[in-house]
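Sanity check record (used in CI):
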Amino acid sequence: MRKILLISILMSFFSFSSDIVGKWYNAVDKNDYDAILEIKKDENEKYSVYIIEMKNPTYEEGENKGKDKMDLYNEDKSLRTRKLVGLKIVDDLYYNKDRDYYDKGNIYNPKDGKTYYVYMWLENENILSVKGYIDPLGWFGKTTKWSRFDEIK
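Expected output for DUF2147 domain-containing protein:
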């Protein structure tokens, strides 16, 4: 009985279920990522995600060639001049201990300028699944996978 209790205690120390804080690539394969993201947790146990670096931070063609990429598709026209690097793309995300995932958040997609519901869960300590969805129940959406920054292939 003591062995079972000891194993249970040790397993809880090595659990990665709530360890999403840190840097992540927004792809599983190093060659496919667009951005490096940083997940932060505030004093209220709320998680946020920021774009901290981009693979191609400037426009390569067109009228904005050579300029920093901006939030051009934002539905709020007054925000279209803000830079993507430094932009908060996820907010109000909480860890749900009972279900072992992160939910109740919103994710902003700068590629279409829209905000979606989001929840996240760890596949393992280095792969984070991120589901953005349009309906409150999470039935209609898309899941992507992010890789921990220092562990990508």
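The first strand starts at residue 22 and ends at 25. If this sentence no longer matches the regenerated tokens, the check is flagged for review.
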